[in-house]
Amino acid sequence: MNSAAPVRLVALREQAIDVNEALDALDDPASGGLVLFVGRVRDHDQERGVVALEYTAHPTALTQLEAVCAEVAAEFAVSGLAAVHRVGRLEIGDVAVVVATCSAHRGDAFAASRALIDRLKERVPIWKHQIFTDGGSEWVGTP
Q1: How many Cβ atoms sit within 10 Å of the Cβ of residue 22?
Q2: Distances (CA, A) of 81 to 24, 39, 102, 103, 133
Q3: CB 99 within 8 A of CB 120
Q4: How many domains would you assign to the chain?
Q5: Which pTM does this prediction carry?
């Protein structure tokens, strides 16, 4: 495994996410598998059309995202890990979140990536405000 720290990139940002940044952060000749998940803004939620999303993060969100990343890195046999979530207003097709892991073997990378996105969604206080085509809106994931 690469001797660099497994957690290579963790960020919350208002600017567009560049998927290549995560790929570059996980460049590792010892890793045979790299799994990348890209979450994008879709044009619907259930039966309602969506115009845009607005993500808001609690002031502790970055610290909690860092903790989740460290936990996943310690639990799974990964040589690298990256997680970036967008905040602010996003339009249809925009990248909202990127998580990626690399490992010597694909199975470990798949399992770690799945755990990372699931725990991020469950535990990092980032809230989604959906704006619908019918003029309505809805908050998702608020306490």
Answers
A1: 26
A2: 11, 16, 7, 9, 36
A3: yes
A4: 1
A5: 0.94
> Quick one: angle between helices 106-123 and 61-75, nearest 10?
150
Token representation of residue 114: 């799945």
CATH number at residue 38: 3.90.1170.40
pLDDT in tens, 18-38: 999 999 999 999 999 999 999
Q: Are 9 and 25 in contact (CB under 8 A)?
A: yes
Domain containing 33: what range? Answer: 11-140
In a domain, 83, yes or no: yes
Residues 44-65: tens digit of each pLDDT: 999 999 999 999 999 999 999 9
Both tokens assigned to 40: 């994008």
